[in-house]
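For practice. Supply one:
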Amino acid sequence: MFKKILIANRGEIALRVIRTCKEMGIKTVAVYSKADAESLHVRFADEAVCIGPPPSSESYLKMDRIIAAAEITNADGIHPGYGFLSENAKFSKLCEEHNIKFIGATAEMIDKMGDKANAKATMKAAGVPCVPGSDGIISDFEECQKTAVITGYPVMLKASAGGGGKGMRAVWKPEDLKEAWDSARQESKAAFGNDDMYMEKLIEEPRHIEIQVVGDSFGKACHLSERDCSVQRRHQKLTEETPSPFMTDELRNAMGDAAVKAAEFIKYEGAGTVEFLVDKHRNFYFMEMNTRIQVEHPITEEVVDYDLIREQILVAAGVPISGKNYTPQLHSIECRINAEDPYNGFRPAPGVITSYHAPGGHGVRIDTHVYAGYMIPPNYDSMISKLIVTAQTREEAINKMKRALDEYVIEGIKTTIPFHRQLMDHPDYVSGNYTTKFMEDFEMK
């Protein structure tokens, strides 16, 4: 077992890792930028090392400084949290070269799953469902027609050099394909100087549902059920829940089996998440794999009574997993509390918290690093807290979240608490009838 772990991160996730390490009798080292000198993760670690000025490029992303901090404090493990260097193959390899255990995926695994094209090819080889479509660039309209028939309508034409929605056309029936092909290529040529196109199946009314997996060094993996992350803004998750209100036992078993198959195929070691798009007909397709702990991991912990950080550390130390797949018996919801103004396009709102009161009571958990008087720096992600509630049923969980949000007081800055409070009353959310398009029609009142 590790004697001392350095946490190569900041904020709530750094504090989260420190807490589990302390419970396991493992010493901790915090690293911090000058902007984070007063953060709770610095206060509660056994040792702390300043690694640079506020910009993450000069601190939390400086691999050599983090390795040096580990060496001077004699840390034998590094936990990267999420973000920053957590999915950096070079950093994982660097830790290995310095005989420091990277508590995460190996460089090979990160390379294999980090590139979306490689990941999709790997998952196809593993027999995991992927979004149907062309194998690559479509050479001409005749091939386009044949690919559309094989893929099945509706389809989405996409510019190979695309971005910002340009060169994309949804096609619902064969008679519209030629016009879409011509206009998409023309737009792509004008925007990117390249009219190469490829095709994918159009996922109707998609939901973003992910499966939590854990794999050990003996080639064994298990899953800890799903999380529904469909409420998003600009592909950034706002709230998550488990179990998904869209889930059936049959779908959970199929998605869980696919996720375990994916993890075991690449001999995945550690905690990871296999993310899927699920259409309105409950067909699911591999999207990507995150080879790290997720922001939303607490809701899984709450419904299956399972410390995922502890499991990461045990697996990294060579302990085998139980191999048991889990089905949630409770319902848990997480709201990401961001320092943003929901009435002004969710604009970031750093500043000093002048007053802070956290909600409490049965089934209420808060993961945060902030307090009254804390200065939220403008240099990092705007998430400052995660409010997690757990109850017997989804209806009870929503009511508990309403109560907890009403109790949560953060003054001096703007936060997303008002947004989440309105979300909990939105009829589509309450009914569970939401997709990744939910925020497109949402308006703050």
Observations:
- The chain has a mean pLDDT of 95.
- The radius of gyration is 23 Å.
- The CA atoms of residues 56 and 62 lie 8 Å apart.
